[in-house]
Amino acid sequence: MSFQRSISVILVTSRAVCAFHLLILGYGRVGRDIAHDASSWFTTISGTVRQPCEPTGNVHLIPFQNQYIQPLLSKCTHILITLPPPREKDDELEAVLQSIAEQFPRNGWIGIISTTGVYGDHQGAWVTETSACLSSSESAVRFLQWEHVWRNQCQHHGHPLAIFRCAGIYGPGRSALHTAYRNTALEGGGITNRIHTHDLSRAVVACMRKSLGESRKMGDCEIFNLADDLPESRVVVLNYARDLLQTEGLWDNTTDNTVLPSKTSNRARRRETEEKRVCNRKMKEILLDGTELIFPTYKEGLRHILEQPSEPWWARKLHP
């Protein structure tokens, strides 16, 4: 029996006597994908929402209020935080943090979704999990502070922590194809990094799965870069998306829609000035056990999105 098969047998057997409960703080686009992939490993999955919404699958949805979250904490084995860092003081969030500190079991696993934006400008060089965080942008600084909040809390209360620094997330609901289709004047930028939501979910679930009993012990605080294999200029990616759309008759080629670099917005200026190539070696070796990504580059990812005929934008062809 292979090592991987042996681990699977051990974990499936352990589920017969252990109830694994995943709580996702921030049940949005990323949370939904992770919950879907994690459903076979967890007895119960709960997710918090800010606004009422329809239940999804077997996920138990609750309001993001401490009075609903607190009773679940002593039963949880894993907490995943997909919430962005708050822009200002959030009393409800503070109450939830305090409840986690007091009631979440000491051996419980915590993971947070962060961003590779914290690395800032490395002049196009490759960055790893140990590279300096140089960004001075307000958003990236907040994420770095958010990481420190959870690092300090987990260290103080004995919770293992995984920080997932994600490149630009794309998938069937949002991608360069959608951007190119909906805009006639496209603005590009410098070297950017990205990851398909299916690969992001796969990596996060693998990390949670390993915490259920794999022999390899990870550190008390592990950082993983989640990115695909091919950093590329946003101009190149958008032009590739435009070409794919054109082959499917979804592009108005009567208009000059050349993708040009932009330096107008703060975000666009960061694309021009904060260039880096994000190394994903640690993710692939430790979380994915050396296997390849489902979508190793934007090319495979975008082509796969075009194969999804149920997408609303797909049906609105420009040339019947």
Keywords:
alpha/beta, 13 strands, 7-stranded parallel beta sheet, 320 residues, disordered N terminus, NAD(P)-bd_dom_sf, Rossmann fold, globular
Task: Characterize the structure shown.
It comes from Fistulifera solaris. Belongs to the NAD(P)-dependent epimerase/dehydratase family. This is NAD-dependent epimerase/dehydratase domain-containing protein. Keywords: NAD. The protein is built from twelve helices and 13 strands. With 320 residues, the chain is an alpha/beta fold. It has one domain: Rossmann fold, CATH 3.40.50.720. Strand 1, helix 2 and strand 2 form a beta-alpha-beta unit. Helix 2 packs across helix 7, helix 3 runs parallel beside helix 4 and helix 6 crosses helix 8. The radius of gyration is 21 Å and the shape is globular. The N terminus is likely disordered.
The tally of strands reads 13
Evaluate the radius of gyration: 21 Å
Ends distance? 55 Å
Can you tell me the residue ranges where pLDDT is under 50 for at least 5 consecutive residues?
A: 1-17
In the CATH hierarchy, the architecture is 3-Layer(aba) Sandwich
The shape is: globular
Task: Kindly report the average pLDDT value.
Answer: 85
The total count of helices amounts to: 12
Number of domains: 1
Main sheet characteristics? 7 strands, parallel
Quaternary organisation: single chain
Query: What is the CATH domain class?
Result: Alpha Beta
Q: If you consult CATH, what is the topology?
A: Rossmann fold
CATH level-four homologous superfamily name: NAD(P)-binding Rossmann-like Domain
User: Helical residue percent?
Assistant: 25-40%
Structural class: alpha/beta
Order of helices and strands: HEHEEHEHEEHEEHEEHEEHHEHHH
Strand order of the largest sheet: 3-2-1-4-5-7-11
What percentage of the residues does DSSP assign to strands (E)? 15-25%
